[in-house]
Amino acid sequence: MHLKVLGLNHRTAPIEVRENFLISKEALRRGLENLDSYDGLSEAVILNTCNRSEIYAVTAEDCDKSVYNFLNDLIGGVDEKFLYEFDNESCVEHLFEVAAGLDSLVLGEGQILSQVKEAYALAKAAEATDTILNTLFNRAIASGKRVRTETKIAYNSVSISSAAVELAEKKLGGLVGKSALIFGAGKMAQLTAQHLLSHNLKKIFVANHHLERAEEMASKIGGQAVAWEDAFTSAAHVDIIITSTGAPHYVVKPWQTQQLMTRRAGRGIFFIDIAVPRDVDPEVGKIKGVTLYNIDDLESVVEKNLQARQREAVLAKKIVVEDAAAVMERFKYLNFQPLMANLSERAEKMRVRELRKVSSKLPNMSDDEKRILDQMTRRIVRKLLRMPMMKLNASAGTDAENFYTQAVKALFIDEVNSLAQN
Q1: For residue 410, what are the domain limits?
Q2: Could you give the CA distance from residue 54 to residue 261 in angstroms, rounded to a whole number?
Q3: Alpha-carbon distance 207 to 200, whole Å?
Q4: Kind of pairing between the strands at 84-87 and 240-243
Q5: Choosing a second label site near 298 at 20 to 30 A (CA), which of 10, 85, 134, 136?
């Protein structure tokens, strides 16, 4: 057995390279179903996300090139300078780190574990996995869950959009039943809206200079688009205003906010400005009833949370090393399973054949005598095989492994084959 992972990720390849490697599930499925056309490849799983494209494979010892050819054919050309590869123990530990979120762009992010599950399920459905990768991926997924259960690596927000929502939740004592107005419909605004939705807000309004963009974003999140000029009318009834427009000047001014607060009859409001340059005039924060946070405030939250995750990553790494070592220990014995099964199967065939010969010469044997004879021959076979199998198991992972493997094949398998043909 030879394990290998070959791939690229956010550390080795820029976004303009990675985005060319995103492949449809149908294309992945077809590729996996044609695995047999590559010499020496017996199993494979492809993990394909916006931040990584990797193939995990079980190969013959001298078939590393087949892994590269498979990946190259699948994604249409790979510049080797962007690739990394790990073998055997390093391959196992790498997968466990990926599943635990230790190798992610955002340390500890949870989505990657679901992506590992999906990649494995797709490969298994395409019949591209067997004992080795089934064992490896099931153990990696279990280890990823263990990391998230026993550590706090996924706690606290480490992105600006999620930190904004976390801050609002903390300051407002929860977001259930609250409403928000978002100025802007770009990527950051959409990410923030998605985080808000996960906290069960009652309503999200979206305002943008181009109403059609506001409508497009609102349809995605189940919100309501409002014309830019009507935004402050909607703001009279919301709890949170988040701004992310990318405008070169302030879009929320003190006089507008003062009028807004008059309409709100003293009811407070929470502003979060995640734009650079800023969308909200700093003077807005001085108005009675207004709480204003900008991106600098959020970055300090993110930095604090990231430091906490890094501390938890040390604990997560210990779990990964422990679980990876356990699966490698199991793999030592998996190497011998086909050999042991072959030896047992052929010895059993020979036992049954000889038993039939004896039975034909003793036609008057009773059922009890036949049963006793059957049990006796089974015990003889087990005792004969016990010592070679013990030697095989004891040699697993040692320098003597190859010696005992070849010895058992020469002394037993070849001999049994020869006898079985006679």
Answers
A1: 336-421
A2: 54
A3: 20
A4: unpaired
A5: 10
The Cα–Cα gap between 245 and 249 comes to 10
CATH of the domain at 219: 3.40.50.720
- Give the dihedral sign, CA 385/391/394/400: negative
50 is catalytic: yes
E strand or H helix that includes residue 232: helix 231-234
Number of structural domains the chain divides into: 3
**Distance, CA of 38 to CA of 379 (rounded, Å):** 43
Conformation bin of residue 105: beta by default, left when phi > 0, alpha when psi is -120 to 50: alpha
Residues 225 and 100 in one domain: no
Q: Are residues 189 and 295 in the same domain?
A: yes
Q: Is this structure's pTM higher than 0.70?
A: no
Last residue of a domain, one of 123, 150, 177: 150
86 and 22 assigned to the same domain: yes
pLDDT digits (tens, 9 = 90+) for 165-195: 888 888 899 999 999 999 999 888 998 998 8
CB 220, CB 195: distance < 8 Å: no
Q: Does residue 266 sit within a domain?
A: yes
Catalytic residue among 15, 50, 176, 376: 50
Same domain, 62 and 182: no
pLDDT tier for residue 30 given thresholds of 50, 70 and 90: very high
Q: Are 105 and 173 contained in the same domain?
A: no
120 and 21 both lie in a single domain: yes
Look up residue 399 and give its amino acid. D
Task: State how far the Cα of 416 lies from the Cα of 408, in Å rounded to an integer.
Answer: 11
Residue 307 contacts residue 152 (beta carbons within 8 Å): no
Over range 157-162, report the average pLDDT.
76
146 shares its domain with 164: no
pLDDT surpassing 50 at residue 16: yes
| DSSP strands (E only) in 228-371 | 240-243, 269-273, 290-294
Average pLDDT over the chain reads 87
Taking only the tens place, the pLDDT of each residue in 94-147 is 999 999 999 987 788 878 999 999 999 999 999 999 888 999 999 999 999 999
The pLDDT of residue 302 = 79
Is 308 within the bounds of a domain? no
Strands of the 240-243 sheet, one edge to the other: 224-227, 203-208, 179-183, 240-243, 269-273, 290-294
pLDDT at 396: 62
